[in-house]
Amino acid sequence: MLMSHKILLTNDDGVYAAGIRAAYTSVTDLGEVTIVAPALQQSGVGRSISIFEPLRINRTTLDGVEAYAVGGTPTDSVILGLFTIMKDMPDLLVSGFNIGENISTDTVTTSGTIGAALEGASNGIPAIAASIQVTEEGLKFDDLRDYQHDFEVGIRVVNRVAKKVLEHGLPDKVDVLNINIPHFAEDDTPIEITRLARKFFKTGVEERHDPRGRPYYWISGDLVSEEKEGTDVHAVAEMGHISITPLSLDATSPIDLSEIEHLI
User: Fold this and answer.
1) I want to staple 206 with a disulfide (CB 3.0 to 4.6 A). Which of 105, 142, 218, 250 is the partner?
2) Rounded mean pLDDT of the chain?
3) Which residue range is the domain that position 156 belongs to?
4) CB 35 within 8 A of CB 62
5) What 3 state SS string does 34-57 have?
6) How large is the angle between the packed helices 18-27 and 152-168, nearest 10 degrees?
7) How many domains does one find in the chain?
8) 215 in a structural domain
9) How would you classify the pairing of strands 242-247 and 92-99?
């Protein structure tokens, strides 16, 4: 019975962000949901973990629902959720909804949303990461507690996928499903099963100077809008389709290992 399932819900935008409230709506009918998320915005921290400072947990409420705010990273939140807050290992971990798409190897290796999902997966828990495309990159850094977006399509997609994962598990060699919903998605928006594109950001650096003339730097860059068909960037950024990319913890290159013998 689905309601007997236990679900851990987290994010990287912070426990008070609008996206995590929408994510709660997407899975609340599937089981007992425990919300454990960073107290503050933690985007871009990847799978970083706090090993040089203590962590604190504060109880709070989101629209009347109990939640736990962790003074650390998304990965910290998952670890404390699993080994301190929850009595039993969950049947599913959901990370999101992130405000801002997480597509390509650029974001998969830097996103706190993905990092949290990977941490759950490393403990044997099927995981879903869900993100919503933004129309302007600057929107990612606004106060996301009151972020205005119609999450309904994303809610229905995640609900459907989560239900199937709880019923059947993930396929062998799949640890995380990375779901990205275009900003203007509708109920009839096509869904593509995709692979990671190589790049989503054309990385750049801006040099500026403070009032004393000393240089400082901002990492910046434009978005890649054209990628090969079958990739998540092509699906979301070019076609406006929903993208679901299966991810694996095993980052070993899928080659015949004898191919690198000449290098050693």
Assistant:
1) 218
2) 93
3) 2-199+227-250
4) yes
5) EEEEECCCCCCCCCCCCCCCCCCE
6) 50
7) 1
8) no
9) unpaired
% of the chain with per-residue pLDDT over 90 = 83
Enter the tokens of residue 220.
């910046």
Helix (H) or strand (E) holding 116, with range, is helix 112-122
Cα–Cα distance measured from residue 133 to residue 80, given in angstroms and rounded to the nearest whole number? 29
Query: What confidence score (pLDDT) does residue 3 get?
Result: 58
**4 pLDDT more than 90:** no
Report the C-alpha gap between 139 and 220 in whole angstroms.
15
Cβ neighbourhood burial of 24 (10 Å; 0-12, 13-18, 19+): buried
In a domain, 220, yes or no: no
Q: What is the CATH number of the domain that holds 148?
A: 3.40.1210.10
AA identity, residue 166: L
Residue corresponding to tokens 């099927």: 126
Query: Ramachandran region of residue 105, left (φ > 0), alpha (ψ -120 to 50) or beta?
Result: alpha
Q: Are strands 6-10 and 32-38 parallel, antiparallel or unpaired?
A: parallel
Residue-wise pLDDT tens digits, 15-60: 999 999 999 999 999 999 999 999 999 999 999 999 999 999 999 9
Distance CA 62, CA 66 (A): 6
